[in-house]
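Hi R.,

As promised on Friday, here is the backbone we talked about, encoded as structure tokens. Could you run it through your design pipeline when you get a chance and send me back a sequence?
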């Protein structure tokens, strides 16, 4: 190729290759998390549509909860896509100051912790119901959930004032993930324990109870895995932003967890129209 042609091609190729020193490689996990999160958002939309068709007579507080979670998840989807665009596209052209952090990243961080707290609080109410108002257990769930929220908000505030490097390197991030993991373990373990204890011995009831247990365990394992992966990746990331990948998916998993648990009642209603289980309002 003539040298004159290379003069025009090289700048174009340079613009297409991620700038390692500018953070291209560091933000690659964010891009991966963004793509998976976008897919999970589509799943949440499908589950929301199913919920509104299946439970038009649900309690108003549950309907408001579903609307709130879906709105939060929608805004979070926008922020994650914007973050990937800012740092992987615009970031190669614009020289951001070192402490600069876009408002989308601040908002995304807030939404992660607030959505998590909202869903875990709903599960705390669920545990309160099935445990016959076990105050110490419910208080432990609310305490760990609130602690995670406080630690998360401190992370967001620290990142807003000190920059993105501090946001993803502060020990508060790992502490919040660990506390969130403990909270999910408490919720999942409580649901399994009390539903097994409340079995009636009737075959049909046993089958339906087992269905609720399986759904609860599966959803709990997913959120526990993400929280634990954030904690582990924080330890091994060594200046990279590995934790941004599971963090981008966290809100989606909690949203889908809530909707899956609510929609699991559909099969219960079809199999027994007069059955009452102490998980939520399951009778028609």
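Update: got your reply. Pasting your designed sequence below so it's all in one thread:
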């Amino acid at each position: 190729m003539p040298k004159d042609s290379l003069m025009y091609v090289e700048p174009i190729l340079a613009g297409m290759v991620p700038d390692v020193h500018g953070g291209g490689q560091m933000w690659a996990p964010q891009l991966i998390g963004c793509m998976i999160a976008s897919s999970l958002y589509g799943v949440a939309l499908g589950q929301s549509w199913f919920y509104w068709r299946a439970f038009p007579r649900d309690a108003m507080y549950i309907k408001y909860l579903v609307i709130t979670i879906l709105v939060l998840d929608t805004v979070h989807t926008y922020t994650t896509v914007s973050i990937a665009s800012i740092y992987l596209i615009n970031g190669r052209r614009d020289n951001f100051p070192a402490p600069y952090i876009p408002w989308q990243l601040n908002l995304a961080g807030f939404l992660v912790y607030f959505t998590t707290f909202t869903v875990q609080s709903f599960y705390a109410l669920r545990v309160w119901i099935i445990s016959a108002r076990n105050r110490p257990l419910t208080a432990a769930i609310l305490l760990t959930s609130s602690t995670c929220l406080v630690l998360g908000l401190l992370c967001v505030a620290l990142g807003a004032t000190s920059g993105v490097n501090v946001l993803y390197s502060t020990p508060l991030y790992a502490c919040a993930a660990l506390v969130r993991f403990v909270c999910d373990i408490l919720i999942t373990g409580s649901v399994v324990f009390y539903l097994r204890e409340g079995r009636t011995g009737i075959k049909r009831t046993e089958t339906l109870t087992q269905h609720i247990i399986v759904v609860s365990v599966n959803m709990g394992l997913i959120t526990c895995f993400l929280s634990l992966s954030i904690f582990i990746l924080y330890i091994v990331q060594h200046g990279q932003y590995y934790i941004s990948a599971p963090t981008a998916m966290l809100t989606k998993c909690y949203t889908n967890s809530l909707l899956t648990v609510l929609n699991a009642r559909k099969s219960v209603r079809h199999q027994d129209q007069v059955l009452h289980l102490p998980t939520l309002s399951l009778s028609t």
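One thing I noticed while checking it: The chain has a mean pLDDT of 83.

Thanks again,
M.
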